[in-house]
Every structure is written in structure tokens, then in C-alpha cells.
Amino acid sequence: MKVFKFSQESAKKAAEAEMRSRLPLILTSGFAGFILALRQPEMQRMNTAVLAIIAFSLFGVLAFSIWLGLKRRAKALLKHVYKVDETSIESISASAQSVKMDLDKIESAEVGKKGLTLKSNSQKMLIPKHLDGFEELSNMISATQAQAKN
Q: Transmembrane residues, as ranges (predicted)?
């Protein structure tokens, strides 16, 4: 049995990659909400200094929330483990139910920009590209897929 997990550095990189994909949505939503709030008559009568304080406060809360989210996600990824044996691959997470997939039942294994996506008849599993030993794991699954086709 072979075990694959995240190192401190790779967990941090994976968390940052996830956040980068969500950041445009977060910023756009925040900006749109602030613009809508400014259109209210009560907000239009406010002093510009007060509005600046509110804007910077919101930005500070947003930055702190993003930083805290990155730290929590990296910590969660450190507990995430992938176990591979001769017949199956298992994804074990502290925050979600573990998923076990038989290697001979994998219908497709596709490498994308986020990592390796495994699909069987009833399950789907994503193996992040930042996982330590990702190339080795990907090669093991590819070899198993090649053997299954023969």
C-alpha cells in the first residue's frame, strides 16, 4: 500500500490556487454590494470621510477573511490522505466522507488544470496536482488503466 499526502508547502500552494479561482467572484460581489449600498439615499448624505472609513474597514475584513480561509484550508489539506493498493484508491479526509474506488472500475482518468479526475460508474474523485507524489500516483493509475484495457 502506498500513501500520498500533502506537505506543508504543497498544502499552502493548493489552498492559494483554490482561493485564486474564487477571488474574482468575491471581489466582484463585494464591489457590487458596496455600489448598491452607495445608491441608497441614507448613504448619499454621508460624509466622504465616513464612506472611506467604511470602505477600508470592509476591505480589511475581506482581507482578513481570505487570509483566515487560506490557513484553514491548508490545515485541512494536511489531513487529507490518498491510499493506493493493488486493487483500489481511497481518498480520506477529516472533513468529508472517505471515498474508495476500485481501480478496475475506473472508466476515465483525465488530467486537467486542477489535477487528475477519476470517474467510475457511480463515483468521481479529484486528485489535486499539488499533492506530493502526484506524478507517481498519476503514472500508477495510467498503468492500471493500460493493463485493464489489455
A: 21-38, 50-70
